[in-house]
Amino acid sequence: TPIGGTGSGSGQFRGTFDGKNHTIKNLKVVNNSVNINNSATGLFGWINTITIKNLKIDGANITGHQYTGVIAGYMESIPTCVIENCHVNNAVVRCTYGNSGADGDKCGGIAGFGLNGGSLIKDCTVSNTNIKAGRDAGQIVGCAKTAHVESCSATNVTVEWTHEENTTGANINNALIGRVID
Q: I need a labelling partner for 6 at 20 to 30 A (CA). Which of 41, 46, 113, 172 fits?
């Protein structure tokens, strides 16, 4: 189960998580919920007013239906939500079709969704990783504003469409951000 819960509400993790450059190995998170309000998937699910920093993950298998990333699924920022100096290596990230409300979208190597005003992903890397989704998938984040991703890089990361029925394959990009919203 993701830290902080999988949806909006009181279960969100808030505060600071400092990994102190430790490495988590062989992380596996599977969220089978097709309810859009409970589908955030990653080490952390739905995060808000938090800083996650100085963390390495080596060997991860993350599967969800929407808002799926290795570090966090959904970044809500009231007022701020920051992921910095986090590094993912050797991961498989899958966002599969669930139903019309959770249709395999917003999937990335660091976070699934980081759109809101105070969201920031900074100084993060993703390497040797495969990301597969129905739409809105990128190497660092599935869907975000360009200004919310700073000094990040990806090496040997492939982003692919699942080709599942009822998915469009839109915004599946071998770029840092799958779907850029300005």
A: 172
